[in-house]
């Protein structure tokens, strides 16, 4: 009702404040044109609207209106006082002087009317001027509002339910049919009672066995049994129309039906045992603060002048102490292979851990493209045919963390990323995940990625090839390094793993960390990955997604090596690759709190007053912070109880050209776990003032970086329930090395 009041009040203000305007139509041609309407308010009362045109000019004294005999309620209005003159007649007197011209349209709302039974009614409107002259007079017909209410006995998408449509008859007649709009995608054998039901083109029409005489005010209720709802729900606006035997409309209106899917049930992921600690590997590792006090170096940085044909990859995405990984390089010249642990290190960003110089290499064969599965072309680009260049031992010198292995032949250079896990069984305060499956989906090395095109994109992707992005680092340098530099500069108790590790060890998440950070773009999730995050939240693990578009596409690893994963792009093209293709219960919002909208042109964020912006003046503008892709709170998807919108903004959607909202959200799960969804790519790259060069973001100022650093600190304090204390507050770490800005592969229709 409040929304309706605001709408009507705005109309009154507009129409009455413009009353001094005149119209060109001669006075003799102007008629009162009385129109009287009714709308059902949320509290069950009716709001009556009286409209009439001034046929004479003058200063308005009052307006007399009639209401249906027997009406009751506490009747109010706006912009004037309303009182009862005689039974069934009300007077509305304006709160200020109004001089009206011929042609001015009066619009008077009456709130809180309790209508009697029956209808329709012929009612009058009479506007009286200060001289006693009628400025307008006439009658109009009020049809009782239909007040359509639609309910579902089991309002869960994908399940069977009974739909009931109820509405109030506005005028008497012989009822011959009732037509009802069905929710999109309803199927099943639909039946009703006391008549016949036919279904066509998304509508169900009920007809009584014989004509039924109905009077105004009678409530019609038609049940529809056997409806099987679509797996996609939403908030539906559905119409209901009743027609007489002579074709006269006895009732017409719309009602809202919310069909919201709760979070999908997920399988239990067993924890399993931690890997056996090999001989020579420690039972505990140095703290982050101790590690970052070691001498750093800026030699890990590859200048853009060294970009070229040299490329390399590892046979493992992650490793642990006591294992080895094989390196495959294409160059044809001797190379140096140097492993750098990425952190803060006095602002130099890396520490050399291991090296081999003068390693011979060959020019490897071109990657292959092809493969089929279940009769479908996979179009997979693979360099599995490359020969091994070098075996790298991961020993006690490789402190758990994120690593960039720099391969250089003196002319060209490239990175190979590796994550080293802490498998000692120690529980850390924080675990930061690398989005390796998403890096691979966007990887175009060999001429194919998932996004090549609708007809040439890969249906299977492999880690057996170098990354074309980020000088071989995938999306690590463009989006993820900043969060790691920040965490290590603060000396947080942090450990690391990858998307692949989430699939393998996801059942151990609660034993490995109290809080997990998801990176800027963590889109591609297997069932085990998604189930592991869901299970961890239920077990009290806090989750902060410092990105957008997370857990969006569904993948299936082909075997236990997790070197290959498939996407179903054959059932329904790109749509069948989405988790939400399984139904609304599998959308991202029921898991993390908000849902992907689209890829955007960079938009500005204006800070608000929520805890996310504590320590930041309200109204501070962060240029370009809404970038890459954004999420928002969809009204038709499951909303966690108590979920709040912490930040809101809008940016221009690339695929539609229209403005799209962004909402950063947070909720507390029944387990006590706290979940934050950041809803933009920009957090990590703002921390180091080095955002992807092709996202249209202006250069990050010192002030913008300070604001985002404060936001990340606030999120860490909140989501960890105070168990992670960020030393130095919101102070931002400074990198003393010049790291190139990298482009980020995009897909506007993602």
What is the general shape? Answer: elongated
Calculate the terminal CA-CA distance, rounded to whole Å. Answer: 38 Å
Taking the sheet with the most strands, its summary is: 9 strands, mixed
What is the typical, i.e. mean, pLDDT?
94
Helix amount: 10-25%
Strand order of the largest sheet: 31-29-32-34-42-41-40-38-39
> What class, by secondary structure content?
mainly beta
Enumerate the spans where pLDDT stays under 50 for 5 or more consecutive residues.
1-28
User: What's the β-strand tally?
Assistant: 42
Strand content: 35-45%
The helix count comes to 10
Taking all Cα atoms into account, the compactness measure Rg is 33 Å
General description of the model:
The chain has 750 residues and is mainly β. The protein is 12% helix and 38% strand. It has a nine-stranded mixed β-sheet, sandwiched between helices. Helix 5 packs across helix 7. The chain is elongated, with a radius of gyration of 33 Å. The protein starts with a helix and ends in a 31-residue tail after the last helix.
Keywords, please?
nine-stranded mixed beta sheet; mainly beta; 750 residues; 42 strands; 12% helix; 38% strand; six-stranded antiparallel beta sheet; 10 helices; elongated
How does the SSE layout of this entry go?
Blueprint lengths: L1 H16 L17 E6 L5 E8 L4 E9 L13 E7 L2 E6 L3 E3 L4 E9 L7 E9 L4 E9 L6 E4 L7 E9 L4 E9 L13 E6 L2 E6 L3 E3 L4 E10 L5 E11 L4 E11 L28 H5 L18 E4 L3 E2 L3 E8 L4 E8 L7 E10 L8 E6 L2 E7 L7 E5 L6 E8 L4 E8 L7 E7 L1 H6 L18 E3 L13 H14 L4 E5 H7 L3 H4 E6 L5 E2 L1 H12 L3 E4 L7 E2 L1 E2 L6 E3 L22 H4 L2 E12 L14 E12 L11 E10 L5 E10 L5 E4 L5 H5 L14 H18 L31
Parallel strand pairs: 20-28, 29-31, 29-32, 32-34, 33-35, 34-42
Antiparallel strand pairs: 1-2, 2-7, 3-5, 3-6, 3-8, 4-5, 8-9, 10-11, 11-16, 12-14, 12-15, 12-17, 13-14, 17-18, 19-21, 21-26, 22-23, 22-27, 24-25, 27-28, 30-37, 36-37, 38-39, 38-40, 40-41, 41-42
Helix pairs in contact: 5-7
